[in-house]
Amino acid sequence: GRRTRNTNRTNNKKIIKLNKSIRIPRVYNRFNGLFVQLLERHRIYSEESRIELMKVEKEGIEYFISNDSIKIGLSQEGENFYDIIKKNNTEYNTHTTVNNDNSAINNAHSIISDNNSTMSNKLYNDSTAEYNTHSVISNTKIPPYVFYINAISSGDDPNKGMDYILSLSSYALSAATCCSKICTYFEEVLNIF
């Protein structure tokens, strides 16, 4: 499967790494207490197994993003998300298979895997971590994407340093809806479900 990183950037530009097994409290007072504790101690561990659930990173967001990643900001006024992503995926697949021999495909996949593995090691400190850049089921390849999603639908749209500003809808959407639409689209493209 495809492994993703979940990081959050706060208003004061701190990066918070979240473990995939974390369960965020639903009650605001518990949530607030958890984040106060995180900002004071810079780490939150699980009670039973001492697994690091949350960590404040020292580096900025740029440290965790590879140079070949396509950075996408979301905005109501952006270009159509589905058209641009489909075009990028088509160009990416055409570019890697242009020679009609497997060496070009294997070389491109090797480069991407190496870059993503390096990023993964920076973020997870896991020497075995590697990102798959294609679906095992459909053999569809996609370039590495980074999505910047505002937590609040009415806030300023991220546009500084983005390769594309794209729109999922002409209406303001919650962060959860944006994440759901993006995940659903890639599940369809990669033929996961």
From TrEMBL:
Record-linked Pfam families = EMG1
GO molecular function term, any single one: rRNA binding
Q: Its GO biological process terms?
A: rRNA base methylation
Record GO cellular component, one term: small-subunit processome
| Keyword terms, alphabetized | Methyltransferase, Ribosome biogenesis, RNA-binding, rRNA processing, rRNA-binding, S-adenosyl-L-methionine, Transferase
Give the top-rank taxon of the lineage listed in the UniProt record for this protein: Eukaryota
The entry's family comment says:
Belongs to the class IV-like SAM-binding methyltransferase superfamily. RNA methyltransferase NEP1 family.
- According to UniProt, the name of this protein is Uncharacterized protein
